[in-house]
Amino acid sequence: MSDLMVMTQIAGRRCALHAHDVQSVIELGAVTPVPQTPDFIAGITALRSQALTVIDCRLALGFKGTDWSTDPRAAVVSVNGYSYALTLDAIEDITTSIGEPTQITGGFGPEWSRVATGMIETSAGPSLLIDLAALIAGPDEKSGDLSAAA
Amino acid sequence: MDDLLADFVAETREMLEASEGEIIAWEADPSDSARIDTIFRFVHTVKGNCGFFDFPRLAGLSHAAEDALADCRAGRREPDAALVTAVLAIIDRIALMVDAIEAGEELSAGGDEELIAALNAASEDDIIAVETAPAHSPASTILEGCDAFADEETAKRPDCPAAVQRSIRLPVDLLDRVMSGVSDMVLARNDLGHRLRQAGTQPTIDGPFERLTTILSDVRDAITRMRMQRIETVFAALPRLVRDLSADLGKQVMVDLEGGDVELDREMVEMVRDPLTHIIRNAIDHGMEVPSDRLKNGKREIGLLSIAARQSGNTISIVVSDDGRGLDEEKIAAKAVDTGLITASQRTQMGREAILQLIFEPGFSTADEVSNVSGRGVGLDVVRANLQKVGGSIKVSSQPGVGTLFTLQIPLTLSIIAGLTVEIGEQRFAIPQSYVEEIIHSSAKALDFTRVGETALVTFRGQRVPCLMLTQVLGLDVGDIDERDQTMVLLRLASGDLFALAVDRIHTHGDLVVKPLAPAVMSSGFYAGSTLLDDGQPILLLDVTNIASNYGLVSDARTRVLQTAEETDSKAGKDISRAMLFTDFHGRRCAVRLELVKRIETAPASAIDRTSASPRAVIDNAILPLIGLPDGPFPAEKVRFLRLSDGDSELLQAVREIDDAVELTEKLKPVTDDPLIEAVTLVGDQTVSLVDGHELFARYGEPPEITAKPICRLPGSEWSRSILGPLVTSAGYDIADESSEPKEDGSEICIMLEEEYEAAAALEMPIADKVIRLRSLPQETPGEDTIYRYDRDALVAALHKARAAGGNR
C-alpha cells in the first residue's frame, strides 16, 4: 500500500503526516494568544473566515524549550470537525509511503510512543507516522481533563 | 396571530407525520408502552397548543384521547384493539380539523361526541357507533385497517387547498455552507478593498467594486435572515398565555420578559417554543399559589413569572423563574419511590439537587389533581427529551416557599451576536452585549472602588457589586494602567446576578459572527467562542457565565429572590433620585429622572415630521411624539433624543447634548412658573431644571404606534428608482417590489406620474386609494391635485400626510 505522506521535522525528528489529513499548508500570520490554556496551544489564527487553533507540536509532545527552528508555514489539519494549524520545525516534502506502519520493539521513547501510529518506510527513508488526535490532545497530564471536558 | 396559527398547523402536521409510524406500530401491539408514550405526547401537545387558540373541539378530542391513554400509562386500563381504533379515529379527526383550520373553513359539526364515546366504550364491542357517525369518512376507513389508513392519509393530502406562502425546506448543512462561503467572500472583499486603496483611485475598478460591496452586504443580510429569528416570536405569545391561564385558575400572575431581541436559529426557535410553554403552564398551575395563600405567606398577591433569554457564544440560556411555592423535595422523592423511579435506599443517598431533577423523568407527576391546564407531568420529560435531542439541557433549582427557577441551555450551531470588544494590555476580547448592563469608568466618584480582603467591590446604584479584574482572571500581566483608571463593565447574568469586570479600555461594539473553538481551548472554561475582527484578526469571546460561576458569583434561586426583594425594599425606603442631565436646544441645562429614560436614540433629521402641530419622529418603526425641537433648522443632520417612557406611553425629548447620569443630592426647589419643570436643583454648582414627568406625560405622552414601514409604489422608470426612490425611503417608506401585486387594502401609497395617472384613469384601471400625482412641469394645472416632481418640500409633506392618515387606520 502506498499513500501520500507529508514529511516534516518535529523536535528534530522526521515525522510523517497522512496527506489526506493535511488540508493545506499556510503561511502563519498573526497568532492571537489564548490565556489560561495549556502551553502547547499557541493561540488562534484566521484562515479566511475560519478560526484555527494553533498547536505547537514540540510542546504538544511534551518537550520543553524551543531548541528548534520553526517553519514560518503551518500545516492545517482537521480533527473531529475542528481545524488546527500545526507549527513544527520544518515542512519538507511530500512522498509516498512503502508498506504499512510497523512497531519497533522497545517503542519510540515516552514522548513519541503516545503520538505514534508506528514507523513507516517512505521513499525518503523511515519516519514516524503521527496520530493527529493524540498529538492534539497534548501531553499526558492534560489529556485526561481534555477528553472529560470535550 | 396568523403566524401563530400557521405555526400551529405546521407543527401539528409535522407531528402527525412523525407519529404515523408509531401509530401503526402501536396498532400491531397495543400493549407497547413506548408507543403509547409517543402518541400520548402528541395528543398532549395538541391539547396544550389549543390553549393558545379557541378550538374547543380540538381541545375536547385531544383531552379525551389523552385521558384514555393516561389510564393505560397508569395501568388503570389495558390497551386493546378497540381502544387503538378509537384513538386512531380521533387522531385522524385532528388531522382533518387541522386541514380545515389551515384552509380557514369550518369543519362540519358533529361526530365528536361519538368518537369520544367510542373511547370510553372501547372495552365493549359497540365500536360501530364510530362507523355510523356522519361526516368523517377517514375515521371510519381507518377501522378497516392501518394500510387503508396510510393510503387515505397520502391520498388526502393533495386535496387540501394550499393557500400558504410558498416556501421550500433546505438542509441546514447547505445553509451553513452558503453562510461560510459568504463570510469568506466578505473577507476576500475586504482584502481586495485594502489593495485597491493602496493602488489609488481607479474609477474603472472602483465603480464595480462599490457595486460588489453593496450586493455582498445585501446577500449577507439575506443569508443571515434565512437562518435567524428573534426569540421574540416565541415570547410574543406568552403574555396572552399567562393571562388566560391565570384567569382560568383564579390566580394573579405578572409576566416579565427580557432578552426578546436575542436571535437564534429558526429551528432552535421552534425547539424552545414547546418547552417554554410547558414550563410556564406548570409554573402557573402548580407553582403559583392562589392570591389568598400568597397573602397568608407574606408574599404579594400577584405572582411574578420572569422569562429571560441570554446568549453566550454558542449557547443561549433561558431562565424561567417564578416566586411561587417552590418544589417539595419530600413529595418528589416519595412519588419517585412510589412509581419505582428510585428505590428507598437510593433516595437516602440523593441530595436535594438530584431529587429535584427527578421531575424530568418520564411518567412523573406530583400534581394531586389532573387539570385541564398542565396535565400529568408529561410536559417535563418531553421538554427534556426535546432539548437533549438538540444538545441542550435543562436544570431546575428551587426553594420551598420562595420559588422555582428553570434554566434551559440551548446550543446555537451558528450565531451572530452583538458584542462589546474590550482591551487589556495588547489583547482584545469580546463580551456578548446581552450581558452588559452598563459601562462606567472606574474613576467615576459614584463607583467607589474598594477592596475588602482580596475581593474588589464597586458600588453600583447603591449596591455593592463584586468586581473581577480581567487581567487576573486570565492570568495576564497587570498592565501599566492603574486599578482606579480602568473601565468597569457591569454584567448581569441570566440568573439576575450582577458583577463588574475591570478592563483597560473599551474598544468597539458591533455584530460578531461566533465560531466554535477547539475542545482543548473550550475546556479552559473561559471562552465561549472566537470571532473575527474586521481586519481578519481572530479574537476570543469570553464565557461570562462560566467565569462568574468559577468565582462563585452565581447565586441559587433562594438568594436571588431575596435579593430582588431587598432591592425593591431599598428602592422604596431610601429615595435616591438619579437623573439624566442634558442640554436642550434652547441651551437650558435640564435633568429628567433616570427611571423615565428608556434609551438614548439618534436619528436622522429626515425621520422627523414637523408638518403637523405636534411634531413626531419615527424610531424603530414606532411613531413617537417629539418635544424640545429647535425653532429653526437642525444644527446637524442627526438629532439625539432621550426616549422617555412611563411604562405605557412614550415620547422623545430632543437634546443638543447629553451630559451624564447624576444623583440628585441637593435640595429640590419647586418651580411654579413653568408647569413642565418640577423643580430647580444644583448639580455640581450649576442650576439644573428638573423636568416634571407627570406633566410631561399628561401633555405629550402617547402609547407608541408600532408600524411597519409603510410601502410606497413608484412609477416604473429609471428616474423614479434613482432619484425619487431615495427621497421616499428617507421619508420612512419601503419601496414596493415592482413585480409584486399592488395591495388593495389601502396599506400602500402609490406615487404616479401625471401621464401615467391619466392613462390609467382613461383605461379605467383600478387605482389605489392613496395616490400622489407628480407633474413634470412647475406650473400647476387648475383643478388637478398634483405636485411638481422636483418640489421636495411638498412631496415630503404629502408623504408624511399619507403616512399619518395610514397610521390612524
From TrEMBL, chain A:
<dbReference type="InterPro" id="IPR039315">
    <property type="entry name" value="CheW"/>
</dbReference>
<dbReference type="GO" id="GO:0007165">
    <property type="term" value="P:signal transduction"/>
</dbReference>
<feature type="domain" description="CheW-like">
    <location>
        <begin position="2"/>
        <end position="141"/>
    </location>
</feature>
<dbReference type="GO" id="GO:0006935">
    <property type="term" value="P:chemotaxis"/>
</dbReference>
<protein>
    <submittedName>
        <fullName>Chemotaxis protein CheW</fullName>
    </submittedName>
</protein>
<dbReference type="GO" id="GO:0005829">
    <property type="term" value="C:cytosol"/>
</dbReference>
<dbReference type="InterPro" id="IPR002545">
    <property type="entry name" value="CheW-lke_dom"/>
</dbReference>
<dbReference type="Pfam" id="PF01584">
    <property type="entry name" value="CheW"/>
</dbReference>
TrEMBL record, chain B:
<dbReference type="Pfam" id="PF02895">
    <property type="entry name" value="H-kinase_dim"/>
</dbReference>
<dbReference type="InterPro" id="IPR051315">
    <property type="entry name" value="Bact_Chemotaxis_CheA"/>
</dbReference>
<dbReference type="Pfam" id="PF01584">
    <property type="entry name" value="CheW"/>
</dbReference>
<dbReference type="InterPro" id="IPR005467">
    <property type="entry name" value="His_kinase_dom"/>
</dbReference>
<dbReference type="Pfam" id="PF02518">
    <property type="entry name" value="HATPase_c"/>
</dbReference>
<feature type="domain" description="Histidine kinase">
    <location>
        <begin position="163"/>
        <end position="414"/>
    </location>
</feature>
<dbReference type="InterPro" id="IPR003594">
    <property type="entry name" value="HATPase_dom"/>
</dbReference>
<dbReference type="GO" id="GO:0000155">
    <property type="term" value="F:phosphorelay sensor kinase activity"/>
</dbReference>
<protein>
    <recommendedName>
        <fullName>Chemotaxis protein CheA</fullName>
        <ecNumber>2.7.13.3</ecNumber>
    </recommendedName>
</protein>
<keyword id="KW-0418">Kinase</keyword>
<keyword id="KW-0808">Transferase</keyword>
<dbReference type="GO" id="GO:0006935">
    <property type="term" value="P:chemotaxis"/>
</dbReference>
<keyword id="KW-0597">Phosphoprotein</keyword>
<dbReference type="InterPro" id="IPR002545">
    <property type="entry name" value="CheW-lke_dom"/>
</dbReference>
<dbReference type="GO" id="GO:0005737">
    <property type="term" value="C:cytoplasm"/>
</dbReference>
<dbReference type="Pfam" id="PF01627">
    <property type="entry name" value="Hpt"/>
</dbReference>
<dbReference type="InterPro" id="IPR004105">
    <property type="entry name" value="CheA-like_dim"/>
</dbReference>
<feature type="modified residue" description="Phosphohistidine">
    <location>
        <position position="44"/>
    </location>
</feature>
<feature type="domain" description="HPt">
    <location>
        <begin position="1"/>
        <end position="101"/>
    </location>
</feature>
<feature type="domain" description="CheW-like">
    <location>
        <begin position="416"/>
        <end position="553"/>
    </location>
</feature>
<comment type="function">
    <text>Involved in the transmission of sensory signals from the chemoreceptors to the flagellar motors. CheA is autophosphorylated; it can transfer its phosphate group to either CheB or CheY.</text>
</comment>
<dbReference type="InterPro" id="IPR008207">
    <property type="entry name" value="Sig_transdc_His_kin_Hpt_dom"/>
</dbReference>
